[in-house]
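Why does residue order matter? Because the sequence determines the fold. Keep that principle in mind as you read this record.
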Amino acid sequence: MAGRPKIYDESEALDQAVKVFWERGYSNASADELLKAMGIGKGSFYLAFKGGKQELFEKTMKRVVDQNFREFRNAVATCDNPVQLVRDFFMSLAGAESPIGNKGCYFGNALVQISGQDSGLKIMAAENLQLLETIFEEAMQRGKQMGLLRTAISPQMLAAYLINLWNGFNLTRRMEDNPEKLLNLIRLNLEIIE
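Structure:
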């Protein structure tokens, strides 16, 4: 016997849940807000997400990775200048058209906002940030092999620096709204990969 067919688009529902979690945080996002944004009822929600809000958040983290990190990783592997790609990635964060605005990093926010009781979610968020660090390392490794980097710093250390810059910049972006100042700050920090 087949279950009831889904009467909603799961991808769209997850995208709407991402927006709520990103704006409100995991702990502050209420079930009612999530259901309303996702356009589904309680019955459909618990049928699709048997683990409730935690399972939904796990799926939204996977969705953010699928939508952003995989494309970035592919670009790093195939572009003509992976070092410039990383520079452009950071420079895009400073202006009004920034893909994250002043909401901060989805995964960094989770690390800060989620209580110790939800350690599995914190671990998952940290693993996603480590994936971004790995992508930075792949870019720096390709850059070294292509002769695009003058620095003697290893790709691993450059990647650690870049993920630290990512984490710090996402906080700075929340307190600073001057795009020129943000661009200058990014330029200064990216001198290490020239």
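The radius of gyration is 19 Å.
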